[in-house]
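Researcher: Structure prediction, please.
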Amino acid sequence: MLLYRWLIDAVNTRGSAKALVYRDTYLSWRGLQHRVERRAQEFGSMGIGQGHWVGLMLGNVPDFAILALALSKLGATVVPLDPTTGVRDLSLILEMAPLRALITRPRGGTDQGAPPPSSAGRGRKGASRIEPESRRRLQGTLLTCSIYRRDEDPPGPAAAVLITADSSGDPKGVMRTEENLSENCTNVQRSLEVTEEDRILTTVPLYAAYGFDLGLCLALRYGATLYLEDEVSPKRIVKILREQEIDFLPGTPPLYAGLARLPTAKTLRTKRARFLATGQTLGEATSEAFRLRWGPRIISFYHTTEAGAVCCDRKGLAPDTVGKPLEGVEVRLEEPLGDGASPIWVRSRAVATRWVGSWSSVAAERAPGKKVPIGSVDAEGWLRTGDTGRLDKTGRITLLGREDDLVKVDGKRVALGEVEGCLEAYPKVKAAQARVLTDSMGSSMVVASVVCLAKCAPEEIIDHCARNLAPYKVPRRIEFCDSLPG
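Model: Predicted structure follows.
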């Protein structure tokens, strides 16, 4: 009930102040509470309550915040999900996470509820279809709530279960407790001095840990005004930054690169700018281009789904690093690997210690005598992040790569092995190799080298991937070759 308690605290202190702004409409804290109470009553009438896990398959819209808070009031666990989740991944999520309900918005003229019958057996781990027991429309909306019958109990208490990818590319549900969420907010506030006067613009998805932690949770915890935006257009974003005098922006390097390319004659009038960049290395080029164009310096930030906020470069003077660990967070680097990069481990009260995932991953985690798997916690509370880096003399950390083949595209984890497996499943493809290209301004995309068995067009292969992978995993370019690069 943590999120709901934060709401009540904000109502008591901020009552009529703006709580949530979306396009040309806004809700005060009291107005937000009123909407939440109505939805909580509706959920209760459906049999949703204490301990139930409920998926929210929504983007950055007010309904996401309202429904999450209503579920929190009932003691249910919020499971944010990407609305573009593919059929295979959704099947795996429904198998690993005992969802009592899944709330979706119509897409393409149909309701996105349970996966269609054709999804059965399509995943390489045998994902199968799970049928909803019933479906009903939420009052006054186009949202559909699919109810599932679940005989098993959830694996433990959690305020939220945030979905990421394990080392194989399969969905992994990180179980964040109330203590994890609260401690993460405290760690960020100590470093970035968040107050009720702040205006937080969230363009990164609320269903992703970064947006959930530094958007929704941070605004609720400190009574700040949350501006939601689901149209990630540089012109649209800069218009909001200017007109609303936004002073807190969790973003990504590609977002800032797009803003830096916009022509302008005026810098931003932001006195307490804290514009954060995470998901991949910010870089000197993007940082300096943005500063020259708009004025504020960007703060490099290091955040993971399992650990929450880890490091930041508070003054924005070292964009090639992610700065120093936040107060309350411990970071250690192991002995360097063959490429000179050291595995990064993190320990804090914000680190999640439990998760749900594929059976093979769970078995590997629990196998006696095995090395701690990537994304898991050892007996002393240290999380093996899977990221690698180096520590300089000033105590700043530079991220260098991964221990596995996971990469970041638009701030989301992509397993290159999963992309290659999808490519090689196409009948005309003999072998494939995927990689990520990142330009000087931080924009990245998946590119694939392919050896074919028969003549085919790049569009055929891309269409095949689009039918089987989430959009951000689909290769943007296909390069044909006689043999794969060494």
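Model: The longest helix spans residues 29-45.
Researcher: Thanks, that helps.
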